Amino acid sequence: MGKRKENSTNSINEQYITECDLTYAVCKIGGRWKLLILCKLEYGKLRFSEIRNQITGITERMLTLQLRELEKAGLVKRTVYAEVPPRVDYELTEIATELIPIWKQLSNWGHKHKNLTQQETLSENG
To answer: Going by C-beta distance under 8 Å and a sequence separation of 6 or more, which residues neighbour residue 60?
Structure first.
């Protein structure tokens, strides 16, 4: 992936968006796959193939990109073992484990909201 120019619109917008701590946090864990990857690592170390097998629909390329971003953000630790063939484990960092109660609460909210909107849709169509 190429490096962005410092004066690009994306770089300028990122500076404004990340002035808010909440927005900054959401940018670090946001997107389709990052929270899902973090949740899979909640119970301990996993190898790349184990993560890939637990997340339906993610491509190897996308998983690689997302793991790199999470590692760069300090949320995932990557450990390479000097073996043949090489073995690589991924695990949550200490600061990432602080997110666990937050994403559980967000998950509960999502469950309630999803049920509420499904009930509304049923009552509109029924």
So the answer is: 52
